[in-house]
Design brief:
Elements: H1 4-43, H2 48-83
Length: 84
């Protein structure tokens, strides 16, 4: 019979992984909306220089998403290996 402590831990890890995946999707959504706003502003006459601070924020969001995705992938693979 599995230990209740290990079972509770596995449930917590599964829930955290789901939350992390949701966070990644949310961050990607924010970045996509910023990119669309930047494109619209450029189409309406704004310059890349004027939008550089906004572009920097979009780039930072994408980097955060990539970091979070990498962490989830690394930890999910480790959890899968432990189950074997």
């Amino acid at each position: 019979m599995a230990s209740p402590i290990l079972s509770d831990l596995e449930t917590a890890v599964t829930a955290a992984t789901t939350v992390m995946a949701s966070a990644t999707a949310l961050i990607n959504g924010f970045a996509a909306r910023l990119e669309a706003a930047i494109a619209a502003a450029l189409a309406n006459g704004a310059t890349a220089e004027e939008l550089a601070p906004v572009q920097a924020e979009a780039d930072a969001l994408k980097a955060s998403s990539a970091d979070l995705s990498a962490a989830v992938t690394a930890n999910t693979a480790a959890a899968t290996e432990r189950k074997r």
